[in-house]
Amino acid sequence: MIHIVLRWDFHVVVFQPQPHFQSLFKSGQNPSSSSSRNDDAISRLPALFYVPQLSFSSGDMLLVHAKPTSEWWWAELHGVIGYVPASVIRQEPDEEEEPVEDPWQDEEYFGSYKTLKLHLEMLSDKSRTEAYRHVIFNNSAALRGKVVMDLGCGTGIISLFCAQLAQPSVVYAVEACSMAAYTRQLVKQNGFEEVVTVLQGRAEEIQLPEKVDVLVSEWMGSCLLFEFMVESVLLARDRWLKEGAVTWPSSAALTLVPCQADGYYAEKMAFWEHPYGLDFTPLQPLARQEFFTKPRFSHLVEPAECLAAPCHVIRLDMYTLQIRDLEVLGRFLFCVERSGIFHEFTAWFTVHFNSMEAEGSAVELDTGPSAEPTHWKRTLFMLDRPVSVCAGDSISGTIVLRRNPVWRRHMNVFLHWSINGSTEDVGTKTFPMWR
Ligand SMILES: N=C(N)NCC[C@H]1O[C@@H](n2cnc3c(N)ncnc32)[C@H](O)[C@@H]1O
C-alpha cells in the first residue's frame, strides 16, 4: 500500500543497536513537533535490534509494509526500510485495505507447534480429545471404506482414532510443521501404516491423490477464532471435499454472558484503595490499562457469577461459511436474572459434530462453565468500570470479532452495550487478541 509523507522532514538515526530500539528524531521545518511526543512515541516502539537510517521529506511516497502498532509503521523508501511515525503520513484515499501477507507470521505460528508443549496441552485436555474419539466411535460403521482428511493433525491423535476404531480406506493426516516426522513414527509404532498416510505441508498447498468423504480438524482457538486456522479448513473444504461429504466439526457457536467478577476486580482494582491503610487510588488508571485492556483467557467463570442466561451470539455453519464471513458480528440481548455488579462479559464456544448416519446422535464439545474445563478455558472481557444492575434490567448490544489486517492470526473483539436501552448508560470497548 502506498502512502505519502505529509508534513515533517524526518531524519531517523539509530545511534546504537541494542535490545530496545532507540532513535533520535530531529524534526524538520515544523517547530510544532514536540520532542516529548516523539520521546513518548519512541518509548512505545516495538523492541528492535537494528533499524537502518531512514530519511524522507514532505511529499515522498512511502511503501508501508506493516502496521505493527497504531503509532509506528514499517515502511520503505527507495529500497530502505525503517519505522516511521504513522502521524506524519497519510494513506492514499483510493488504496484498498488489502491484508498484508507476511510469511514470517506463519513461520512463527507453525514454529510454535514444533515442540511438544502445545501438543501435550491439547492431548492432556480430555474433554477435547475424548469428544473427537466419541465422534469417530459413533460413526465407525459409516466410516468403513471412506477417505478421511485430518487437517492440522499434530501428533495424529484423530487419525489414529480413525484407524483404531473404524475401517476407513485411508486417512490423509496433514501437518504443516516438522512434527509430521514424529507423527509418521507414531503411525508406524501403532501399526496403522496401511491406513494412515502422513503428509507434511500446509493444507492449502498439499496435493491429495483424491477427494475426501470426511474432513476432520481440531482448529478452534481462544474465543473460537483466534489463530484463524478455520480459514485453512474452509480452503481445504472447498478444494478436497466430495459433494455431500462431512466436515467435523459441522458447526460452531460463540456464547457470551454478562458476569460478576468480584474476585478478579478486587485483586486487580479494589486492591489499590487502601493497601496497608494507604490510599493508592492514583494507580487505578494504570491498573485498568494494564489488567483490563486485553482479554483474560485463564478465567474459569462459575455459573453463580452469571448475571443472565448465556446466549449464542455467533453461529458458524462449516458447510456454508466463507472466508469473507470471518469478520463476524453478533447481537445480544440479556435479561438480568439477579441483581449484582456487571464487571465483565465472558465468552466461550461450543462445536457440534453431526452424525454420518441419518438417525445417529451428534456429539457436542462445550467449553463453557456447565462443562468440564478445557485448555481453552473461557475468555473474560473486563469493563473499564463496573455497573450495578438489577433483576429485570436488560443488557443489549453487539460483539464484532474483526481479524487483524496485519497480524492475520490475531483479531480485535469489539463490544458495545447499553443498559435498558438507554443512550446515557452505554459502553464500548475494543480488546486486542493479542497484538
Ligand atoms: N488451535 C488449534 N487446534 N491448533 C491446532 C494446530 C495444529 O494444526 C497445524 N496446522 C494449522 N494450520 C495448518 C495448515 N494450514 N496446514 C497444516 N497444518 C496446520 C499446526 O501446525 C498444529 O500442529
Automatic annotation (TrEMBL):
Keywords from the UniProt entry: Cytoplasm, Methyltransferase, Nucleus, S-adenosyl-L-methionine, SH3 domain, Transferase
Enzyme class: transferase
Locations listed in the record: Cytoplasm; Nucleus
Upper lineage: Eukaryota, Metazoa, Chordata, Craniata, Vertebrata
Stretches assigned to the SH3 domain: 54-86
UniProt-listed Gene3D superfamilies: Hnrnp arginine n-methyltransferase1 (2.70.160.11), SH3 Domains (2.30.30.40), Vaccinia Virus protein VP39 (3.40.50.150)
A Gene Ontology molecular function term of the record: histone methyltransferase activity
UniProt xrefs under InterPro entries: Arg_MeTrfase, Methyltransf_25, PRMT_dom, SAM-dependent_MTases_sf, SH3-like_dom_sf, SH3_domain
GO cellular component, one term: nucleus
Known catalytic reactions: L-arginyl-[protein] + 2 S-adenosyl-L-methionine = N(omega),N(omega)-dimethyl-L-arginyl-[protein] + 2 S-adenosyl-L-homocysteine + 2 H(+)
Methyltransferase domain mapped to chain residues: 148-242
Protein name: Protein arginine N-methyltransferase 2
GO BP of this protein: methylation
Protein arginine N-methyltransferase domain location: 251-421
The enzyme's E.C. designation: 2.1.1.319
Primary location: cytoplasm
Organism: Mola mola (Ocean sunfish)
